[in-house]
Amino acid sequence: MRAGVFLCQCGGNISGVLELDDLAAQARALDGVVSVAIEQFLCGTQGHDLIARAVEDRGLDHLVVAACSPRFQGPTFERIARDLRLGENAVSFANVREGCSFIHRDEPVLAQEKAARIVRAAVARAHRQADLPRARTFLHRTALVVGGGIAGMTAAEELAGAGIEVHLVERSPSLGGYMARLAKTFPTEDCAMCSLAPRLTTTALEPHVHVHALTEVDAISGPPGEFRVTLRHEARHVTEACVSCGECESVCPVSYANDFDFGVASRHAIGRPFANAVPAAFHIDRGGWSPCKSACALHTSAQGYVALVAAGRFDEAYRVAAAPNPFPSVCGRVCTRLCEAACARGDVDEPLAIAALKRFVADEVGATQTPTPAPVVHEERVAVVGGGPAGLTAARDLAELGYATTVFEAQPVAGGMLRTGIPDYRLPHATVQREVEQVLARGVELRLGQRAGVDFTVDELFAQGYGAVYLATGLPRSAEVDLPGVELRGVQRAVELLREINLGRPVSVGARMVVIGGGDVALDAARSAIRLQVAAGREPDVTLVYRRTMVEMPANAGELAEARDEGLKVELLVAPVAIEGAAGAVAGVTLARCALGAPDESGRREPLPIEDSRFTLAADGVIFAVGQAMVADFLTGCEGVRVENDQILVARDTGMTDRPGVFAGGDAAATGYLTVVEAIAAGRRAAAAIHNHLRGETLLPVWPDQQAMAQPGDERLAAVVGKRRVPQALADGAARRGDWREVAAGYTAEQAVAEAGRCLACAGCADCGSCVRACPSGAVDLDERPWTEEITVGAVIVATGHQEFDARRKPALGFGRLRNVVTQSQLARLLAAAGPTAGEVTRPSDGAPARRIFMLQCVGSRDCQSSGNEHCSAVCCLFATLHASLLKQHYPDAEITIAYTDMRTPGKSHEEYYRLVQSRGVRYVRGRIGELVEEPDERLRVRFEDTVTAAKYEELFDLVVLSAGLEASDGTRQIAQVAGLQTGAAGFIKEYHPKLAPVDTQRTGMFVCGTAQGPKNIPDSIAQAKAAAARAVAMLSSGFVLTPAQVASSDTTVCIGCGVCVSSCPQSAVALSGGVAHAVVDANICRGCGICAADCPSGAMQLGGFSDAEILAEVTV
Amino acid sequence: MRLPAQVDRVTPDASAVPAVASRAAERRRAIVAFCCRECAYAAADASANARTPLPPTVRLVLLPCTGRVSPLHLLEALAGDADGVMVAGCLEGQCHYREGNFNALDRVLFVQRVLASVGVEPERVRMFTMSAGEPPRFAAAVREMDRAVAALPPLSRS
Known about the structure:
The structure holds two protein chains of two kinds. Chain A is α/β, with parallel strands linked by helices. By secondary structure, chain B is an alpha/beta fold.
């Protein structure tokens, strides 16, 4: 070390008490000191020159300044050292003025000793001082403001005024925040929107402010001055061509509670939050796919057609139902209805009768449709083998894509299992025929009586010039049964029996039938057998035997109930052992009772026969309905196609077999359940895959992109008034079993509209397409997807605001349960002149005038219970006072009582306003509610006490308004996580220091303002916004920033990775990282307190400029 | 927030300054005072600017925050030639680095227990709090520390 010791006389302040020559002599003798000088005023220009010359002449690398307190002129000498290229931490201070000469004037001898010691300590420290690194970051003159409420807009405008580019990000469709939802503001009773609207306009027009609505901040990384931000833009689904005419909104069939109005009014899926929204374009609230749409194999927009039915728009409903599905009348009768199983209404009372509604529109509107042939635009022809739902659907789609398509069907009628499997009473032949003909009318050629492998082969089809073949041959025969006695006369197979019945051929069944099986086919066979017995003049006697229980039974529970009504007997938990014969014919069925054991490979519990439990049912006929199997004729003359386990092998993503150009789907190459809707979905995928194959490129997605499922939240479900499903009429069981008429009558128009009205509109927009057609500017884009964008900003201001305390956390107050209990925010929407009721306040339960009103303060605030927040929400006393004043002016005869804990009205004019409103006749009572009970007429009986007079009251009110407090909004919690900001109680962003730095956060370059930082009123939010903007401007004005020198850092060769520093740091500036964990300090967050260094057990962590070596050198000299 | 178990609060008492004459006869004492820059050192500077006389036994060591003080520093100071060590920081809840003074108090208490366990008077290490706007509190703390340490027998070292 080559240190220079500089002693300052300080004009006598020091030299008047201490002998500097003596100190100089002692200093010269110290190790490492190569220069000593005395100067009258070391901090002045002469002192500066002295130091500069000494550094130059003597080659100094350290300065020891013996002068005043380092808190006084420390920065001066440190800057001199930097200017002289001595680096950081090159100055050591001997405080011989405030530390010695000032305070020991009467004891010069001891003062001299002490001063010498102080100088020695400073020199010892200098030996240990090392240069400290500082990183330089260029400051981008851009800022990110998160949150577009009054605070965010104010900050953005201030920043723009300073010439800084601003990205103003807002997650909702429009700027405005909470203030846009208020009626009036206190104490002036100015209309909130009137005050806000000019600000909205100026923000929109300000060229330096880039407004990003419907945008989220997904990630922030990097140092201050160079924050890298990922913005995610959600789909608005409305382009800039929108002129806000509102045509779309008037045709939207979906209606649900409007969040903007806090649920007191409803909205359509497409719309605008308020009239002067910025940006002005409309927006579609699309939460994803509704549960019904997600569950359906075709992803039919069920919510869409249900909403249109509820609006009485049956034609449009049919169009939505039939868009993905050429067999809506069929599915409306026989589908397995996974949509209904998923329906969110099922969590409240009963799922929507979605299938019945589909049947209604398909029968009502579909029957009148007369499709015309689609034009053939491609030269390739496609052959479809199999005229069932999979084949016919593929044929329809291919015809619509412009291919000449031929369907080859082995049976004398088309329709597959729809026609030959399901009986008339469940699915009338005429219905199937009609929908088949509507498919054919699109230009599909049908050839009946053509069996592949017998009447033609697949190889021949290609030879004839077909470009592709789709095998949709299904599983058209019964599975093999291996049971003693199957060869006896009277044993039939369900699939074959039903085919004969459905083709009108003569069949017969015995007088006592046993049907073995538990699926829909078994029930079809059993009920058909009942009808055949009745037609033969006998009492029906059919027993269904099934080896598991009702729980595992695949058949539709409704079907089973109908069958029982028709006289079906059911034996559960019995398995067939043998069929008994007499003279070669069936005489009975021996069964063993079973108990359910562990699950087998199908996942269902295995039925295990019980010892010695066999019994024989007398019977003269048995029908087996235990599964279906393939008819593999088509493999003859079908080179290259492989079958395994009764399934054609295909590539899952295209449905193509091993032979190029040959595709397969439906029951014969199943990718899901063996149901009608799955077959239709397979047909649609096949058409897309064949189109891609023939065109040589992927033009259509084969498997549609599945979107996230939207579900109504718990609060929406809790608000639903229970109403069970509208039942369909059913003819009496004994009567209807005598013939084959359709059993389920379907809905009338009134019933359909009533049932459709139960829909909860889970996804908001239901993809019905009405707005697309209605928009005169073509501005609706349902296919728009979210997109992300990376930007770089120098500073971030968080202005993400608050939300109202959820008053349902106080169940005794009845919010969410009692209709006439509302919150102040809801009342604000009712009072707002531009709100849903144009300022009329009525009782929510019945619309009657609300004249006796009770307001309760401090709901969820000043609350030490875990269901509330401890803080005072700052604005509620005045919020209630304001609303009471507005009500009194609107309804002079209204009687308003405000029950308060304290009336807190700080701030300019607020106390005066409170007194004014009191003088208007609003009654203020100091007390809380003892009990709140709903009367039969839905008025509220409130018991409360006036703690000032000790009087107790019990009174009836039309309306109770809860002053629910303020909490951090979801957006605030979210941005705190993304940006790494600390939050305090109730989720508000923690300011760096509550007194001295209220808009700074613990992260350099990130600031907070408005109610995101804590509850406050509008003028205070605006003031904080301007403060935060000023901080950002100050930071960004310097061009570049250096990380501080006084930050902690860890020596990785010594660090043991214990992590104590991570938990000690109050700023969360330290993290463990690396394969062998060691501490890493983020120099942009570290504030230089040194707590981590003091806690570090290994001594790896040191504070720049205050290392253990430096401190101990000074202390132990 | 953790609440401190015990922090010495000293009120200013002008009469506590010992007379000059008696000091010359005293045994030389050395007390090291770790002071945080924001409050204690600021109070020290302000007290000095007011020319408030203080016993010359106390030498100040500047730290950004008392949170930087580790038990190592306190014990090394005593192992050197300090007869007493004081840690002076911001008032509770007002630490400019949020909570460094609570950490410092924990360590002071820890060192007191260590000292007691080896037979050294625990009151040789003490913590005082004050605000930058209370120079008399700093002065009073220094005098109190000096008085207390003066009353103790010499610390034996080997």
